[in-house]
Amino acid sequence: MLNYTHLHKGIVFLLLSELCFTVSTVFSKMLTNTSSISAIEVTFARFFLGLIVFSGIIYKNSISLIPNRLSLLIWRGVLNTVAVILFFLASQYTTITNTHMLNMTYPFFIFLFSPLFFRSEKSSPFLYLILVCALAGIWLVIDPDFNSVNKGDMFGLLSGIVAAFAVITLNMARKSDSTPVILFYLMSIGTVVNGLVMLPVFVMPEGHQWFLLGASAAAGVGGQICITYGYRYITARAGGLVSTSRVLYAVVLGMLVFGESLTWRIGAGGMLILLSIVTVTWLHKPEGEQ
């Protein structure tokens, strides 16, 4: 029997998580637009703050940090780190709207690549129609002329592809390790890998830059906490549909904060991408989900 109280909790937590993730990129873009600080530095702050928060949770609950499948946790951590760096680099070089629209293609790529990792999952012939729809949406949003493709848009699309593999490894890791352990290793690996990448381009923040850096990191960690709690109360399929709200947040905040324009190409492309995500999410029913 459907528990509507739990469903509502799940929806609220996921709506908050997507708002937090969007706000995080807004603060990041405000920082990178007004200083020489790179988005790579912003992502390091997010991982480092996350490591502190989740270390506290691990310590408070006396959770063992000995993993059952270390290799999966390492893959999950590295892939997630790369996806996050690409995502924030996209926000630095393209619009907030395009960043989130292109990153939100990850559910489609999960559906596309999952059969390579889970033999029980079969690709529907209908997938090829979804593929055409998604590619058309991506084409409209990026609007390439092959002479000056926006590198921010390419970063956004690549972040969606890498994020798909990161989520696939997360689904595999959840079968053997708990969420707190996965998050701890994710933040630890992210801090180390991101830190090494950041060293050559590090710039010491000054004055209000510390606020923007901290606000972006805090919003990102807040989003991670909300999404973790949200999926306790809602199915993966329903959660995927709710997560598309991030595109709406991105469009509104992009227009209000940065004066971004919503052209017919971006609007039409966004609708095709969202249609692909909704269709894929509806078709992809995880085992055991009611």
Brief account:
With 290 residues, the chain is mainly alpha-helical. The chain has helices spanning 4-33, 39-60, 70-93, 96-103, 106-117, 127-142, 151-173, 179-198, 208-230, 236-243, 245-258, 264-283.
Protein model, in words:
This protein is mainly alpha-helical and 290 residues long. It has one domain. The chain is 76% helix and 0% strand. The longest helix is centred in the N-terminal third of the chain and has 30 residues, at 4-33.
Topology:
Layout: H1 4-33, H2 39-60, H3 70-93, H4 96-103, H5 106-117, H6 127-142, H7 151-173, H8 179-198, H9 208-230, H10 236-243, H11 245-258, H12 264-283
Helix pairs in contact: 1-9, 1-11, 2-3, 2-8, 2-9, 3-4, 3-7, 3-8, 4-7, 4-11, 5-7, 5-12, 6-12, 10-12
The helix content is over 70%
Q: What are the segments in which pLDDT stays under 50 over at least 5 consecutive residues? A: 286-290
Number of helices: 12
For the secondary structure, the number of strands is 0
Percentage of β-strand residues:
under 5%
Rounded Rg: 18 Å
